[in-house]
C-alpha cells in the first residue's frame, strides 16, 4: 500500500508524471518491437527447434521478453550491451589508459560510454551472424547472401535501437533504462507462465502440491531478494577534530555501508553464460558423441546432468560473486580516502589494519550474498527436475525483476523526498 501511495503522490507532480509517462511509452515501444518478426524465417521450423530444447536459451529469452524464441527484431535484446559493459569494466582494471579515463570524471565516463556503444554494435553484429548462419540456419527460407544480410542487419539494428531506447529512459524517464527493458521482458512472460502451469495442471501433468511448492518458492525468493538487496553492514567511521584558522572541522560520526550483495545479478549472468556455451555447441553437432554426452551429463534437463549442472552453477556463481565484488570494492582505496580526510574506524588503526579489517568484513558478508545467489539460481533447476513444472531460471527472473523494481522505486522516492513527501522505503 505504501508503494502505491508513493506512486499516487508522484503522479500528482507534473514533471515526475511526465517522466513516468515517457518511461511507459518507451517500454511500450519495446514490447511492440518484440512482436515484429524478422523476415525470411520459417516459423514452423523455428517452433520445432525450441520445442526440442529451448530450455538452454531461457536466459536470452528472459532478457528479450520472448523475442528470442519468436525471432523478432529484438531477438538479440540488450545482451550485447550487457556483455560490452562487462568487458569494458574488466578492461578498465587491466588497461591503465582506461583506468585513468575512468577517473577523469564526467568526460571520462562519456568516453567509456561511447566505447561501450561501439563494442555493443560489433558484438551484436557478430551474434547476429552466428544466429543466422549457424544456430538458426535451418529455419531460413532463403540462405543467399542478400537474405542473410537483411536478417543480420535487422537483428543488429534492433539491439542498437534498444540501447538508444535505454539511454532515452535514463535521460528523460525514471529508473535505469537497460534494467527496465529487461524487467518489462520478464513481466511480459508472467501471464504465459501462469497459463502454462494451469494447462499442465488441467492436463494432469502436475498436481496441486507442485503448484503450491512453486508459489512458496516464489514467495521465499521475493522476500529473500528484498532482505539481501537491502541488507548492509554499516562500518562506523569517526572523523577527528581539526582546527583550521579560527574554525574547528570534523568530529562527526558516519558509516560505510557495505552491501551484502555487492555484485547484484552479474555473477548469475556470468555463470549461466559460461555453462550455456558448451550446450549451445550441441546444436551445431546434433548427432555427435559430444552432443549425447552433454545432454546426459551436463544438461539441466538430463537425468544426471541436472545435478551436475546445478553444482557447477553454484560454484561459478560463488566464484564470480567474490571476483566482481573485488572489482567494485577496493578496501585500500577506501582506507586511503578515510585517512586523507582524518577518518578512522573506532578501535582500528588507520592504514594497513583498516584495509585488513575492511577486507575481512567484506569477505564474510560476501559469502552470505554468494550462497544466497547460488541457492536462488540452483533451486529452480532442482525443483524442475523433481517436479517437471518447467520453471527454469525462475529464480534469476525474480532476482532481476525484484532488484530492478526496488532500484526504480528508490529513485522515485528520492525525487519525492526532495519535495517533502514520505516514501514507502524506510
Which properties best describe this structure?
426 residues, mainly alpha, 17 helices, disordered C terminus, 3-stranded antiparallel β-sheet
Q: Which oligomeric state applies?
A: single chain
Spans of 5+ residues with little confidence (pLDDT < 50)?
Answer: 421-426
Strand order of the largest sheet: 4-1-5
Helical residues, percent: over 70%
Largest sheet: 3 strands, antiparallel
> How large a portion of the residues is in β-strands, by DSSP E?
5-15%
Gyration radius, to the nearest Å? Answer: 24 Å
N- to C-terminal separation?
A: 14 Å
Query: What structural category arises from helix and sheet content?
Result: mainly alpha
Principal-axis shape equals: globular
Rounded mean pLDDT score: 77
Order of helices and strands: HHHHHHHHHHHEEEEHHHHEHH
The tally of helices reads: 17
Tally of strands? 5
Account of the 3D structure:
This protein has 426 residues and is mainly α. The strands form 2 sheets. A 3-stranded antiparallel sheet has the order 4-1-5. It has a two-stranded antiparallel sheet with strand order 2-3. It has helices spanning 2-11, 14-33, 43-51, 58-64, 67-70, 79-94, 96-102, 106-135, 145-172, 177-202, 208-230, 266-281, 289-297, 305-328, 331-340, 352-387, 394-417; strands spanning 232-239, 242-244, 247-249, 253-259, 343-344. Mean pLDDT is 77; it is low at 421-426. Helix 11 (208-230) runs antiparallel to helix 16. It is globular. The longest helix has 36 residues, at 352-387.
Outline:
The chain is mainly alpha-helical and 426 residues long. Helix content is 70%, strand content 5%. α6 packs across α7.
